[in-house]
Amino acid sequence: MSSLESARGAHDETGPNTMTSMTPLPPVPREQLGTSRVLVVGDVMLDRYWFGDVNRISPEAPVPVVHVNRTEERLGGAANVARNAAALGVQTSLLCVIGDDEPARKLIELLEHSNVSAHVERDPELATTIKLRIVSRQQQLIRIDFENTPTHEVLLAGLARFDALLPTHDVVLLSDYAKGGLTHVERMIASARAAQRIVLVDPKGDDWARYRGASVITPNRAELREVVGRWHSEADLEQRVSKLRAELDFAALLLTRSEEGMTLFTDQGAVHEPTQAREVYDVSGAGDTVIATLAAMLGAGLPLTQAMAYANRAAGVVVAKLGTATVEYDELFQ
């Protein structure tokens, strides 16, 4: 795509196939980020946290008894992605499907406080997805999920809304959590590509043919392994990724590698960014921060390798926070 020239185009680096980016990271002016227009589409959820103390084991079963003394509610899934982009000062819209229930109303309230423009399709038969985490002494004891899938009719309505929103956005970010919100993802990518928009995909599952034509896909190691198999060396990894990109017409693939940082694969080879995390506290939601930061920077006109470096820095900040969290502008550029 012409709007993502650095995904297809050349890097300045030369040398071995896998290189470490040494590009300095000057602050991106707030005004420049403010011109970035990102449309996030995908599965949203409400993250609920119950915090408490454990002082005994239940007499009914060998499980801890948690005395809950504090609760929190946060945006999760694609809503957390949108919240991360908005936290950097980006013009952020979110297209999603929710139910007509109490968690849905809470999601709308949280989105309003996050400076995200919400475009919501409501499905009365849908139970808005909830992930309930019970935490004691900074350790997650259990996670309980409540979810089902939206109806066909509301998904078609969402597709029509997508076509209406597309002309006023520079970057389309598709956040797939396999909850049904991206049932028509192929048509969305085709429309965005025809409009010469940058398309980023956070994938789920092993059927990546549905993401064909995306500008950048951002799997973690486990997700990529599920699709290309286990690799035995960096050269083997690059060969497998190159084949995958050619088959599915991905301009670039950004592999997030936890404590190993991240690696960007394009036609010019692989560029690696080592991790910048000073302390790893909680990796949940880190992928949301990475792709949101990437979208923000690309929408502001930065080249892909530089956008990746900022995304890597943002990941290093967010993993030091508990649960789904954001990185503010001042944290990223301090």
Automatic annotation (TrEMBL):
The keyword Glycoprotein does not apply. It comes from Pararobbsia silviterrae. The lineage of its organism: Bacteria, Pseudomonadati, Pseudomonadota, Betaproteobacteria, Burkholderiales. InterPro entries: PfkB_dom (IPR011611), RfaE_dom_I (IPR011913), Ribokinase-like (IPR029056). Keywords: Kinase, Transferase. One of its GO terms (molecular function) is heptose 7-phosphate kinase activity. Pfam families: PfkB. GO terms for cellular component: cytosol. Residues 1-30 are annotated as: Disordered. The keyword Kinase applies. This is D-glycero-beta-D-manno-heptose-7-phosphate kinase. It comes from the Bacteria. Residues 37-326 form the Carbohydrate kinase PfkB domain.
